[in-house]
Amino acid sequence: MSEEQFTNWSMGILLTGLILFMGFIIWDLGKQSNAGRFGTFVLFLALGFGVTGFVFKELLVSFIIGL
Asked: Other CB atoms closer than 10 Å to residue 36's CB: what's the count?
């Protein structure tokens, strides 16, 4: 396995774990603050928007490089 392959695998795995952990943090924040269903939804929408933008950027770069 080359260094490039290792980097690609580890970044994919670790970033996925980080995104899942951030989702857990948002859920726990909503639960501890007694935000309710709508408040938790707003937390996921607002705080998860940055994660969605990051994932979209990575997909866009992969698509452009693939052309």
From this structure: 10
Cβ contacts of residue 35 below 8 Å, gap of 6+? 29, 42, 43
Report how far residue 53's alpha carbon sits from residue 39's, in angstroms, rounded to the nearest whole number. Answer: 21
pTM for the whole thing?
0.71
Mean per-residue pLDDT over the chain, rounded: 89
The string of DSSP letters for 27-59 reads HHHHHHTT-HHHHHHHHHHHHHHHHHHHHHHHH
Residue 30 has a CB neighbour count (10 Å cut-off) of 20
pLDDT tens digit sequence for 13-44 = 998 899 899 999 999 999 999 999 999 999 99
